[in-house]
Each structure stands twice: as C-alpha cells, then as structure tokens.
TrEMBL record:
The name this protein goes by in its record: Oxysterol-binding protein
Domain of life: Eukaryota
InterPro entries: OSBP_sf (IPR037239), Oxysterol-bd (IPR000648), Oxysterol-bd_CS (IPR018494)
Any one Gene Ontology cellular component term annotated for this protein: plasma membrane
SUPFAM superfamilies: Oxysterol-binding protein-like
Keywords, in A-Z order: Lipid transport, Lipid-binding, Phosphoprotein, Transport
GO annotation terms (biological process): intermembrane lipid transfer
Family: Belongs to the OSBP family.
Pfam families for this protein: Oxysterol_BP
GO molecular function: sterol binding
Length: 383
C-alpha cells in the first residue's frame, strides 16, 4: 500500500520558549507538561523507532564473516540515529504508560518493531526490532537540563544487537545539546564518545563525536575498530548528519580523506536521504518520519497512532491538541492513583541480559501473535 508523502503544513504559530525553559532549570523534561507549540506530531515511541531508518546497514552487516568489517558497519549504523536531528529542535509527545507503537516493514525493509512505554516513574521507553538475521532491543530515558543559552539532553540506556551468527553488540547514545535557545539562531549538536562493544569476540570501537562550534561546522565522527589484541583493523568516519563510511586500516589510511574525498575507496554504510524542499513546513520530517503516524489498520488500541492529541496537533488544531493532551494526562494520573503500584508492561519485562550482565527491558513475545488474532484483551484503555 502506498505511503503518504506529506502531512498538513505546520501552522505559523510563535511561542514563548522562555516560559518553557524556566521549567527546565530544575526538572526533567519527561516530567514537564510541555505546551504542544514546542512539540512535533510524533510520540517518543515513534521517534525511538525512527532510529532504524537506516537499518539496511544491519541487514548488510549480518552477511559479513570478518568480525572487524561487521563491527565497522554496526558502529557506522549507530551514528545514523542522529541523521534526522540536525534541524529537529521540537520535542515528541511524552508517551502514556502502556502506550505502544508497532511498525511492520518486513515486506519493504526486512524488519519490524514494537515499542512500549514501560515505566512512568522514572519515564522509560522500550523497543524491540527484528530483522532477517538480527534482533535489536533497547530501553531509554532522557535527562534534560537547562544550561543558560542551551539545553543538554542525556539519554540513559543501552542498545543491544545480536546477529544470528551469535555476535552480541552493545552501545550507548551520546549527549545532545540545543544551542541559542534564548539568543541567536537555534541549532543542535551531538557530541561525546560512544563505545561499541562485541561481547562475543572482544572487539571494540570507540566513536568520537567532535563538538561543533557553530551550525555551519562539520559534524565529524571518527573511530577505529580494535580486535581483542587492541590492534586497529577498520576505520569508521563521516558526519552524523550526512554520511558514514568504513575502510580497512592500512599504512596509507587517511581519516580526512576518508571523510572528505568523494573518490575514496571507502564503503558508504549509509547516506542521509535528501530533504524535501518544504521541510520547514513539515517539521523537518524526512519521508520515513512522515509515515510513522499514518493511520494503519490492525494495530493495538494502545498504539500511538490513536492518540487524539497528536492527531489533532498533526492536523493543525493546536488549541484542541493542548486541551486533549491535558485530559489524557489527568486521566493517567487518576488511573495510577487508583492503583497500589504501576501496572506491569504489556510486552516487556526487566531481565538480566546474558553476556553483558546488565538489566534491561526485554521483549517477552506475543504482540505479533495477538495482532494476527486481533486479540487485545490485555490492553488497557489509555486514550
């Protein structure tokens, strides 16, 4: 079935960001009821799923037998989650507890995903993705702090990736900052270090995201794949908002040439899709993001696509969206207050992961089977 190519244009409605920023000074963003003017028409569950827009890199990585080559592609993929962020200063809607989102793209892209808001205090979102020869899962929360003329966003969580071959990888996400929120033109940066680890073979790749000095500066990312003996085997380099490349390390390897030379023999792992001409009217969404909130039959009644506030917001009815959003949040508070404890997640449980030893929310199965049977008895009414 053809996917939609656009959403209603963003209304030209200014907002007082200072009113919002003052709340950030002492509270986490996930605990703040932000006016919809500061949002984009997606739930955080949908935004989390958007991380897999370039998952074709994992499909390709699954075919490699050279552990260094596979890790290089995995590391390059881990940087792709930032490709959509370069102009996206808006915030997705906070998910309600037990809210879900599924995206089945097995026929077109080779993978499917199920996400759920698994905790309210602290806010936590879990995601499970299945490819043809791999599976990936993660759960994340966000810490956001106001730092004067910029806001700092620190993701808290771990991403796990396991190939059918047995290789088990983990990595974290780096810090993001939204700059010039009070004075100047706002722009976003992603910076820090991210260690990608192969727990099966002992390979590692430390990716360094260079701090940018301005909106016009290049968003460079570089790293080397080291084998279990600490020897450099592959180089990973590029720009997180444009392209990532990999190449085997030789005496002649030049990081700068790998990034800047279009004639380099390095392999392109992913390249950002070209933006649409009217992207500023489409919340700077790419085609993939445009499809995420498109109504789809057969999904659970807890799916983000059914959120009336997000739908009203997408349609340009911001005042109505704000009112409905407040109603949903009030209903959730009443629902949780009436119970002794938070309800358990529907499709995930916190477990200790073998090979790594950390606790994370793991998919327990059953969602796709219930979807096939149209059996949603376990789903609460949250909208």
């Amino acid at each position: 079935m053809p996917k939609r190519k656009q959403i209603p244009a963003r209304p030209d409605m200014p907002f007082d960001i200072w009113t919002i920023v003052k709340q950030f000074a002492s509270r986490e963003i996930t605990r703040i009821s932000v006016p919809v003017n500061f949002c984009e028409p997606l739930s955080f569950l949908q935004r989390l799923t958007e991380d897999f827009e370039y998952a074709s890199a994992l499909e390709k990585a699954a075919t490699f037998t050279d552990p260094g080559e596979q890790m290089a592609h995995v590391a390059a993929f881990s940087a792709s989650v930032y490709a959509s962020t370069s102009n996206r200063m808006t915030k997705p809607f906070n998910p309600l507890l037990n809210e879900t989102f599924d995206l089945d793209r097995k026929e077109e892209l080779g993978w499917r995903a199920i996400a759920e808001q698994v905790s309210h205090h602290p806010p936590r979102s879990a995601l499970h993705v299945e490819g043809s020869k791999w599976k990936c899962w993660e759960d994340y929360g966000l810490m956001m702090k106001y730092r004067g003329n910029y806001m700092q966003i620190k993701p808290e969580g771990v991403t796990h990736l396991v190939f059918d071959s047995g290789n088990h990888y983990t990595w974290n996400k780096v810090i993001s900052s939204i700059n010039n929120i009070i004075v100047g033109t706002m722009w976003i940066d992603n910076y820090g270090t991210d260690v990608v680890t192969n727990h099966t073979l002992g390979y590692k790749c430390t990716l360094t995201y260079a701090t940018s000095s301005s909106k016009e500066a290049k968003r460079k990312v570089t790293g080397f794949v080291l084998n279990e003996a600490g020897e450099k085997k592959w180089i990973v380099a590029g720009e997180w908002d444009k392209i990532m490349k990999v190449a085997p390390v030789t005496d002649a390897t030049d990081e700068v040439a790998l990034i800047e030379d279009e004639n380099t023999t390095a392999t392109v792992v992913w390249e950002k899709s070209a933006p649409r001409e009217d992207s500023h009217l489409q919340y700077y969404f790419g085609q993939f993001a445009t499809e995420l909130n498109e109504p789809e039959p057969g999904v659970a009644p807890t799916d983000s696509r059914f959120r009336p506030d997000v739908r009203s917001f997408e349609n340009g009815n911001w005042q109505e969206a704000n009112s409905v959003k407040c109603e949903l949040e009030d209903k959730q508070r009443a629902r949780l207050k009436a119970q002794d404890k938070e309800p358990d997640p529907l499709w995930f449980r916190k477990q200790t992961v073998e090979d790594v030893g950390d606790e994370t929310y793991v998919y327990i199965g059953g969602y796709w089977e219930c979807k096939k049977k149209k059996d949603w008895k376990r789903c609460p009414k949250i909208f």
